[in-house]
Amino acid sequence: MFKKILIANRGEIACRVIKTAQKMGIKTVAVYSDADADALHVRMADEAVHIGPAPAAQSYLIIDKIVDACKKTGAEAVHPGYGFLSEKEAFCAALEAAGIVFIGPRPRAIAAMGDKIESKKLAAAANVSTVPGYMGVIADAEEAVKVARDIGYPVMIKASAGGGGKGMRVAFNDDEAREGFQSATNEAKSSFADDRVFVEKYIVEPRHIEIQVLGDSFGNVIYLGERECSIQRRHQKVIEEAPSPFLTPETRKAMGEEAVALSKAVDYQSAGTVEFIVDRDQNFYFLEMNTRLQVEHPVTEMITGIDLVEQMIRVAAGEKLALTQDEVKLTGWSLEARVYAEDPIRNFLPSIGRLTRYQPPEESDSVRVDTGIYEGSEISMYYDPMIAKLVTYGDTRADAIESMCQALDAYYIRGINHNVNFLTAIVTHPRFAEGRLSTGFIAEEFPDGFHGGAMSAETRKVLATVATMLHLSQVDREAEIEGKMDELGPRYGDDWVVNLGGEDIEVSFDMTYEGCVIRFGDESVSVESDWVPGMPLVQGLIDDSFVTVQADKLAEGYRLTHNGVSLKAMVRTPRAAALAKLMPVKLPPDTSKYLLCPMPGLVVSIDVAEGDEVKAGQALAVVEAMKMENILRAERDAKVVKVNVKKGDSLTVDAIMVEFE
Ligand code: ADP
Fold first, then answer.
1. How far apart are the first and last CA of the chain?
2. Quick one: 89 and 28 in the same domain?
3. Is it the case that residue 486 has pLDDT exceeding 60?
4. Which of 246, 271, 577, 655 has a 20 to 30 Å separation from 528 between CA atoms?
C-alpha cells in the first residue's frame, strides 16, 4: 500500500479523499493556489504545496506543477478527484513517466471515453444500446437538417468534446436544427476548442440513470447499482439518489451488465460511471462514460457500504477487487442535494463572498455533509461555487426524503446567497415524493423560476408558533434585566397578534411545565424548546413532531426560515398591531431608470453611450462573473442619460451602471 498520496484537487472532493486516506493510514499532500492558502483541504492534509495563482489554468490545471509537487514531497500516487486533470490522458502519461501512480483508469480508457462520438461507436461495438442517431461529424447546418429529418424530430445536437451540459441544443424543426447546429458549434469551439458536433434522437420525458462500475487490473469489473440524477437544471445535476425509484430489478441488471461489458471493452480499472438516458418505457441508451469519481458517488456508498475512494486506492496499488458481483447488496435509500452559492430568486446567479455564519446539520448515520469550507471561508469567483453536498440515508425513500428536509432546515448559511430553500422546495414537492422524475422536472415545476417555497398550512402554523415562542422568551429575558422597576415578573398580556410576512394572525397562550400552548382561533399547539436568544436555530417539539426553524433577529421581530419558506415575523399587542396598520409603508426605491449590475463582476463591454436611444431587448453591456459572460439588455425603450462605468471596471452587485431618462 502507498505511504503517501497527493490529491490534485481542491474543495470538498480533496477533503473527501483525504478522509479515506487518513482512515487507511496513508499520509496526504494537498496542493493549493493563492486563493486557497487557508482552505480546508490544506488544513486537513499532512503537507501542502503551493502551485500558483488563483486561476485554475495557472495552478490546478498545470500538469508539471503537480508532478513537481509529488517529487518534492515523495508522494507515490495521485488522486485527481473530479474536474481539473481527472480525465486528461496527458496527465496520466506525465505521472507514469515520472514513476508516479495515477489513482484512476488507464490512459487508454480515458482517451476512448473522452470523446462522445468515439465512445458511442465503441459502445455500439460492445452491444451496448446507444441513442439512435448519426455517429459522424456534421459538416454544416444543411447536413444537420438532413440528418435530423432522417432521425425524426425532436433531435439533440451535441458537441463531441462536450461536458458539463455545454454545447447541447434540442431542435424540434428545421429552423431550430440550423440554429442549434450554429450555437452548439460556437459553444463547443469556445468551451472545448473543438467544434465537432453530432446529432441524435432527443429522448422525450427522459430520466438520467447511471451505473457505478468498479474494475481492477486483473480484468474484474462489477457494478454497484445505479444512481438517478434526473433532477437537473440546464443539464446540470441538482439532486441525485440511489437506487432509482423507477427501475425494475430486471432493468437494473440489464443496465449493469451492459455497463460492465463496455468497461471490459476498454480494460477499465478503478471507479467509473456509465451514464444512460432512460425513456418512459424503461428503454435505456448509453450517453457517455465518466472515467473518474463522480460528484454524486456518496449515494452509492451509502446504500452499498463500499468506500469508493478506498477501492480506487486499492486497485491503483495493484490489489484485486475483494468483492464479487453477488456480494454487492443494495440496502436502504440515499439522496444527495448540491448546496450551491447562488441566488435562486435572481435566476440562480452565482453568489460570491465570505460565509459569515456557517453551521451545517449534524452528521449521523443518516446525514453526511461533504464540504471543503468552514465558517469564515470565502467562495471565490475562480472555482465552482459549490458549498457542500448534503447526503441523507433512510430505510425507505420516504425516510431519506424526511431526513433531507430536516437537514436542509438545519443548514444555516449566512453572508452569501445559497439554494437551500430551492432544494427544500424540490424535495418537498408532491411529484418528487411520487418519484415521477424526468430531466424536465425543474423546468416544468418551476416554469418561471423560483420565488420562494410554497406556504402550506403546516408551515404557517410552525412559523406562527415559533414567532410567538421567540417573543415569549424575549419578554422573559427583558424581565430579568437588573434594575427594572417592575418586581412582579414578566408581563405577557393575554393576546397577541403575529404578523407573518404581512398577514396578521391573532394568538393567545398558556404557559405549561414543559413549554407553552399557543392558541390560534380554535386550534391549540404545544411547543417545547431549549432555545435561548442568540441561537440561530430554534429546535424543538411542536405538537410532538421535531422541527427546526432558522431565526435571524431583525431590528423589529425576526426573519424565520423553515421548509423552504423565509419571511419576516413580528409579534405585537393587539393595540400595537392596530396602530401598525396606520404606519406609512416605505416603498422600495424606484430602480426602473437604472441598469443595475446583477452580480459582482467585471465589465467586459459597455455597448451604449450617453444620448443613445435604446430599444427593448437591446444589449447594453456585458459583465463577466464566474467565467460566464452575461449580456445585460434593455427592459424597454429608453434614452441613455448617463453611463457610470467603463470596460474593465469591477462592480459590486446593484452598482448603477447606466441611467435612463
Ligand atoms: P455532458 O457531458 O455535457 O454532461 P451528457 O451527454 O451527459 O452531457 O448529457 C447531459 C444531460 O443532457 C443528460 O443527463 C440528459 O438530461 C440530457 N441529454 C443528453 N442527451 C440527450 C438525448 N439524446 N435526449 C434527451 N436528453 C438528453
1. 71
2. yes
3. no
4. 577
Residue 160 CA, ligand 1 centroid: distance in Å: 12
Q: Is 288 a catalytic residue?
A: yes
Q: Best of 208, 227, 285, 444 to mutate for ligand 1, by most ligand atoms within 8 A of CB? A: 208
Give the residue from 355, 432, 364 showing the smallest Cα distance to 388.
355
Catalytic residue among 226, 275, 288, 296: 288
Q: What is the pLDDT of residues 418-463, one digit of tens each?
A: 999 999 999 999 999 999 999 999 999 999 999 999 999 999 999 9
Question: 130: buried, middle or exposed (CB in 10 Å: 19+, 13-18, 0-12)?
Answer: middle
Per-residue pLDDT of 452-465, as tens digits, reads: 999 999 999 999 99
Burial of 479 (0-12, 13-18, 19+ CB in 10 A): middle
Ligand 1: which atom is nearest the Cα of residue 133? Answer: 23
pLDDT at 483 over 70: no
- Identify whether 127 is part of a domain: no
Whole-number Å distance, alpha carbon 393 to ligand 1 midpoint, is 27
* 356 close to 330: Cβ distance less than 8 angstroms: no
194 and 332 assigned to the same domain: no
Give the per-residue pLDDT at 92: 96
Which of 131, 168, 288, 289 has most ligand 1 atoms within 8 Å of CB, for mutation?
168
Beta bridge partners of 543: none
Please identify, by atom number, the ligand 1 atom nearest to the C-alpha of residue 275: 7
The CATH number of the domain holding residue 56 is: 3.40.50.20
CA of 208, closest atom in ligand 1: 14
CB atoms within 10 A of CB 127: 10
Residues 240 and 282 reside in one and the same domain:
yes
Q: Identify whether 512 is part of a domain.
A: yes
634 domain-assigned: yes
Q: What is the pTM of this model?
A: 0.89
Within 6 Å (CB) of ligand 1, which residues are found? 131, 156, 162-166, 168, 200-203, 206, 208, 232, 235, 275, 277, 287-288, 439
DSSP 380-401: -TTS--EEEEEEEEESSHHHHH
For 283-307, write each residue's pLDDT tens digit.
999 999 999 999 999 999 999 999 9
